[in-house]
Specification:
The structure holds two protein chains of two kinds.
Chain A: H1 6-9, H2 24-52, H3 74-81, H4 87-118, H5 121-136, H6 139-153, H7 159-183, H8 187-195, H9 200-208, H10 213-229, H11 232-236, H12 246-254, H13 260-281, H14 287-290
Helix pairs in contact in A: 2-13, 3-13, 4-7, 4-10, 5-7, 7-10, 8-9, 10-13, 12-13
Chain B: H1 17-53, H2 64-72, H3 74-103, H4 110-118, H5 125-135, H6 143-150, H7 153-159, H8 172-200, H9 204-212, H10 217-245, H11 249-255, H12 262-273, H13 275-302
Helix pairs in contact in B: 1-13, 2-13, 3-8, 3-10, 5-8, 5-11, 8-10, 8-11, 9-10, 10-13, 12-13
Classes of the chains: A mainly alpha, B mainly alpha.
Amino acid sequence: MIVGSPAADARPPAPLYKRPVFTFANIGLGVAIVVISIFFLFPIYIIFLIAFVPTKYTLFTALPPLYPVKLTWDNLTAGLYGANSPFLPSMYLSLEVAFFVGFLALAVGIPTAYGLSRLGPRLAYGITTVLFIVNMVPSITIAIPISVQFIKAGLYGSWISIGLTQELLALPVAVFLLLGAFQGLPRDLENQARVDGAGLGRTIYGSLIPLIVPALVAAFLLSWMLSWDESTFALILYNPATSATLPVNIFLAFTGRGIPANGVAFSVIATIPVILLTVVLQRYLKGEDLAVGVRG
Amino acid sequence: MAVVDRNGRPPAPVATFWQRHKARIVPFLFVVPSLVYVGYFAFYPAAQTIVYSFQTPILSFTTYNYTASVQLGLYTWIGNTLWVVLGALALQFGLALAIASILARSFRGKSVFATVAILPIGIATVVAGYVFSQIFPATGGGYADSVITATGLNHLLTIAGVSLPIYWTHTVPLALATVVIADSWKNTSLVVIILVAGYATIPKALYQAAAVDGAGPFRQFRYVTLPGLRNFIVMALLIRGAQEVNIFQLAYIMIGSYPQLLTVQVYTLYYSTGIYLASAVSTVLLGIVGLFIVLVIIIGGRGR
């Protein structure tokens, strides 16, 4: 074997000096990371602590211990199966509404995003701004007149009424996400399908949609998640005679119109799926979508 | 007689209105359902609120609801709301700039830190409100006091003349501060996501050039990072600002209806006095958010 063969030369040369690990800046960075992580994780830890430790060590003491003194399932079982626990109907309503919001976001969001990607830039910008403004209008301001309307229409408290209002929050986000996906597709793809004789419907659903499935899934799940966590519309529109969504029951439990222990159990149940979704969806949570296409 | 043009050929068929504008009309038709939907479910109810705010059960046009809200303390509610907005924006942007700057570097465990920094998005607002109501309870004490005791800060507080338990929600500034902390915990992640997107648009070469010119980390931040993030920061400030004005359940669970915030007053007035008085306060809320919306339109439009 020849000494100095290309394989041997390919190894990078040893650095002239090794970067020190424990510099002042690195230690500062490390401390910042640890402090910020504790700030973010501490409340989540407390949620689980309160859920799995007897309430006399958590809710009903002035200086609650910071570590689990004793573990118990009692809080959860009492909340989920206890007498008069609204858990099952509440969970059912939450799921109904969340899936409705998710599917509606796709049903209305796909055509809207496609249309926006084909409109002139000025009109498209105007319409995205309108959708964006909808996201800023105070929920409580529009929830009250809407609830008056729904009472008249006899839809008060139904999954349709809650879902239709929550869609106001989900639709803009879904449209921005899908718009990004449509804009990423080459324009020729569509022209080709049209030349091959496909109608507009078949072009969109036959050749464009299959290419943006990940964005569709992300839009559906984000909408689902927004609905699952939403509580202002759900609170104003809930009918005390039937049932309320999980967040509303949590709200009622902690504002003196329910049992706090129920709220504890519901909080854990409501939190787990969304934490998982957040981690899974991490790479779809894009700044451009949240700030409606601000460019640098 | 056959119609022919100057060259003796039949004239080209005149394109119909539909044929001429099809390329623009069809995409617009796709957008119509969304526009009808947001028109009916967002803009129409918002307009209705304004109309209701000038009515009472017996009068069809009156400013009574507004004078009554002022007597009830409307200006205090606006003041409290603005303090929360300012505090929350300052805390969120300080934290988010720090986190985004950290995430712009590369280090071991970066993806774990990135995940931790967005976890609060996955916690429902009501759950966040509840857990912070246990950290800063209205009854005094709570997990905040436990942490103060565990870290030995209570000795320091004793010297300063503060004794445990601390009644977090009994004074207005402290109560608003706890709401600001809780809200920032829940929402800083959204700002982080926007600023990280902003960082991605700053060319790395600018930092190298600045370093060659002898700029240290602080001057790089001041003269490269901040100008590069400017548009993102402005947009994020406006979005978050409008949403801070709308802060409701989090505050209601933590501090109830004192100190009063606009949204909480809308809610309590709606259930205690009905729709008319609540609509007046609601319209004031809408007006404040409207200012943010106008700024978004002006600034967003200028960037194009």
